[in-house]
Structure prediction request, 181 residues.
Amino acid sequence: MAQIYDFKLARPDGSELNLADNKGKVMLIVNTATGCGFTPQYEPLEALYKELHESGLEIIDIPCNQFGGQAPGSDDEIHEFCTLNYNTTFPQLKKSDVNGENELPLYTFLKSQKGFEGFGDFPDREKFEEFVAMGNPDFRNNANIKWNFTKFVVDREGNVVARFEPTADMGEVAAFVKSLI
Prediction:
């Protein structure tokens, strides 16, 4: 049976990030996009990284262009956007698919560990669900990633312990991650 530490991810420079190098750390794995309404989540993600990286937090940022074409740039352009606009210091990986026939095997694993449980309550939830349904009519009944900035949390023992949809309050995400540090 696969475990989180079995996966290796491509960096934009062609080297690999071996998740086994993160044994004993808490990982927050997020599919990102630079042109999304959720893009401002880079700010609290960076704040969390700065606060907790020395205590064992790793953020695994995987840009993805599968949702509304909202990450159209090259890996270098995406990195430049994030560092200039959000001062990000956590590493970004190569832009990749998180759903479908070309999805990263890591995402096949993550979705098998934590499926979709709903978007929760937030203003305009119904409109957002209608929007998501246009591209994924059966979204409630599958584990697929629904949109940019879906977050998976992995504890220090390598267990996938939470999935936060992009609509989750970033304060709740931060509080959960801090509880594991």
About this structure: Residues 5 and 19 are 5 Å apart (CA to CA).
